[in-house]
Amino acid sequence: MKKLPRETAPGSKWVYKTGETNLIGVLVMRATKKPLADYLSEKVWRPYGMEQDAFWMIDPSGHEVSGCCLSVSLRDYARMGQLALEGGKGVVPANWFAESTRVHADIGVPGRGYGYQWWTYPEGRFGAQGIFGQTIRVDPKSKTVIAVSAAADKASDRDYGLARTAFLDRLFAAATH
After folding, report:
1. Which pLDDT tens digit goes with each residue over 52-63?
2. H/E/C letters for each residue in the chain?
């Protein structure tokens, strides 16, 4: 990434880029001197009682692909959402999830935004989503977590995303009645 030209001045334009998420993983690996899966298992997975081992896909150079490709069971996706809903007590610093799940970047879609690696939605909801439809959506008001395992036909399909959001909104409505 350091060889790529700067597109705009820092802070002038927001665009989600997987490469930046991958860079976070590289920095964590270098700082901890551990593979990401080992660090995640030690700091989050075991303390929170995840069912499966943490696992990232490995690239041809032998490094974990931290911008994507975390392999997680559906139950552990739901546990990740529950961890965030509960504030991560004992796993992350107090108020970290409250801070990370609020809007820090306007993404140009009314009512939606981006926090610290979390998407924000209307109604105070937040979540994570994968490129092919994998989803964790959290509604703090109803204390509901929805996890979806998916393999959409194509990456980042707008119509698929709209349909998924409409479906999730119906599930949240059903959870509150």
Report:
1. 888 899 999 888
2. CCCCCCCCCCCCCCCCCHHHHHHHHHHHHHHHCCCHHHHHHHHHHHHHCCCCCCEECECCCCCECCCCCEECCHHHHHHHHHHHHCCCCCCCCCCHHHHHCCCCEECCCCCCEECCCCEECHHHCEEEECCCCCEEEEECCCCEEEEECCCCCCCCCHHHHHHHHHHHHHHHHHHCC
